[in-house]
Design goal:
heterodimer; A: 260 residues; alpha+beta; 33% helix; B: mainly alpha; three-stranded mixed sheet; 3 strands
């Protein structure tokens, strides 16, 4: 009888959880992104009943790892590719100019490359998550709605500062291991390199050149204010980095060693 | 000796499920064993090729999945991970070792359910400990391992079945069909829901998405410039994918269309594996196709073991 009940529950779970997800009902809570579809932080939940029902199927999905997220490249697909770029900076930049570290997944030549199926496929997914919002970055739309984009940009840094810092630290540590002659940097910046995709019908090799967008900054030489995130966000509208407060109700940050 | 050997508990199903032979009539155990062997083989390749070369970059202190990064995701939810709070990379390495042993045992059918349980627990743990390096393929992996853990996946092609034969029981093994049926429902849901999201996208309906995907230097294994350009191909690929995914429930339910729909799926997944950086997603998806192959017939005709064949032939059941 128990096995029969389990089979019926699995059928209900598969159908219901997939149907619930057709109607976005979860609000992003300003922590690292989940695999679920989520509405922007601060949005009022438009479907509280679906949300309540889905909490049951969500529990089962989380307990058993049976996440139902089937929207490969749908409904939209970004018109550009994004790669994170890490920039190391020393306060005395006249003596030591900044150094840029590119992603190992970024092709040296966009007209001819091969990405082998190996562990870089997984690294690539991490990097995609870091630059997710920039896949849709569009200068015209940003200029038309600066406040909306600023909030989105700041929310992304507030959500992902831990993974951003982990990425910056990881890249820096690996680089310094190869260059023991260099001191640890005072500041590490994360930029997103954007490669616009050619439009349909474009001739071979006809691609717009990539460009870099500053994203966030980690002043690893300083402890910073205890009330602010260790990673600052770049404000593209005033062209400087700004400190962001911890989101209300978040857990106290776990202390990790600052300087790489 | 001629009595049918059915391995596993018989479920008590309510209503029409209990009256449907599709849900109740035992099927050959090789169908589920194939899922087990396929999943284990892909899992082993996955661990060795996509995790192991950079395991210290992905897990442990100072890595991309340093414990503090995803700790918040485990709070206030039912997510869990055996790696939660673990910084010591020797422990992470030990977990990888257990995961590999579990995958090998699953492949060979040595205590397969226990192996599936360990492999599933570690798959969920590794995913939750560094969520950003995973994608939908890993969700399929966990679903496959979950069903293998709770079903008699060792009824055929396993140490236990080999022992049974050595003791003189030559009867072919059958299982109750529920794990295979639930996996099929899951497969149908995956494609149909994918199709539903796709049809909502303007660029999918307009036939432009495949161009965008193939021209994106992030998601492609080869440059768009290196691929042959045949006018109209990408639009056709877009629409065929859309129609195939949306129509999959009907295609699979129609006997004459089932085989072409599945072959199209095989081509689709192998092509995406060759062209796109989707990690092992296509291969885990193909594991869901394995129950459709009549393994028991293939074995009878290829092995041609006279005594066993005649005995088993009596028990050949339509799957």
């Amino acid at each position: 009888v128990l096995l029969g009940a389990f089979i019926v529950w699995q059928l209900v779970f598969i159908v219901a959880s997939n149907l619930f997800d057709l109607f976005p009902h979860r609000i992003h809570r300003l922590d690292e992104m989940t695999s679920f579809r989520e509405l922007l932080a601060g949005t009022k939940n438009p479907r509280p009943v679906i949300h309540a029902l889905a909490s049951v199927t969500d529990c089962w999905a989380q307990l058993t790892g049976q996440y139902q997220m089937w929207w490969l490249f749908a409904p939209d697909f970004p018109q550009q590719a994004t790669f994170p770029v890490v920039e190391l900076r020393w306060d005395d930049d006249t003596a030591r100019p900044p150094i840029r570290l590119l992603s190992p997944t970024e092709p040296a030549n966009t007209s001819s490359y091969f990405h082998p199926p190996d562990s870089t496929d997984r690294l690539l997914h991490y990097e995609v998550n870091l630059g997710l919002g920039y896949g849709y970055w569009n200068e015209a739309e940003v200029a038309a709605a600066p406040d909306k984009w600023r909030k989105l940009h700041f929310d992304m840094v507030t959500s992902q500062w831990k993974s951003m810092r982990a990425y910056m630290r990881w890249k820096t540590t690996r680089f310094l291991a190869q260059r023991p002659d260099l001191p640890p940097p005072d500041e590490v910046r994360l930029l997103i390199r954007v490669y616009p995709s050619p439009p349909p019908g474009a001739a071979r090799g006809q691609r717009s050149p990539p460009y870099d967008l500053p994203y966030s900054r980690w002043r690893c030489a300083e402890d910073g204010s205890p009330d602010c995130l260790p990673v600052e966000a770049y404000d593209p509208f005033i062209d400087r980095y700004v400190a962001l407060p911890y989101p209300p109700g978040t857990q106290p940050p776990i202390k990790v060693s600052q300087r790489p | 000796m001629n009595e049918q050997l059915v391995v596993g508990l018989k479920p008590s199903l309510p209503g029409f499920l209990g009256q449907s032979s599709w849900w109740t009539e035992p099927i050959r155990a090789e169908r589920l064993a194939a899922v087990r062997v396929g999943t284990a083989a892909v899992l082993l390749a996955d661990i060795c090729c996509t995790y192991f070369p950079q395991w210290a970059d992905f897990y442990g202190a100072g890595s991309l999945g340093s414990p503090e990064v995803f700790a918040g995701r485990l709070c206030g939810s039912f997510r869990w991970s055996l790696l939660a709070g673990i910084s010591d990379q020797r422990i992470v390495m030990a977990y990888f070792g257990v995961w590999i042993v579990a995958a090998v045992c699953l492949l060979l059918g040595i205590f397969p359910r226990l192996a599936a349980c360990a492999a599933w627990a570690l798959a969920v743990s590794f995913q939750n400990a560094n969520a950003y390096i995973h994608n939908s393929g890993d969700m399929v992996r966990q679903i496959l391992l979950f069903y293998l853990m709770i079903s008699p996946c060792g009824a055929a092609w396993s140490l236990a079945s080999w022992r049974r034969r050595r003791l003189g029981d030559q009867r072919p093994a059958f299982i109750h069909p529920w794990p295979i049926r639930l996996l099929l429902v899951q497969l149908v849901a995956i494609y149909f829901i994918n199709g539903t999201y796709k049809v909502a996208g303007e660029d999918w309906r307009g036939g432009e998405i495949m161009h965008r995907v193939l021209a994106n230097v992030l998601w492609t294994r080869f440059s768009y410039d290196q691929l042959p350009h045949i006018p109209g191909t990408v639009a056709v690929m877009t629409w065929v994918t859309l129609v195939w995914e949306l129509g999959f429930p009907i295609l699979i339910a129609t006997p004459r269309l089932r085989a072409p729909a599945l072959w199209l799926g095989v081509v689709f997944h192998l092509t995406s594996a060759a062209l796109l950086t989707l990690a092992p997603f296509p291969f885990y998806m193909l594991c869901l196709y394995l129950p459709f192959v009549p393994w028991e017939k293939w074995r009878l005709s290829r092995c041609g073991l006279p005594g066993r064949t005649s005995e088993e032939a009596k028990h050949l059941a339509p799957a």
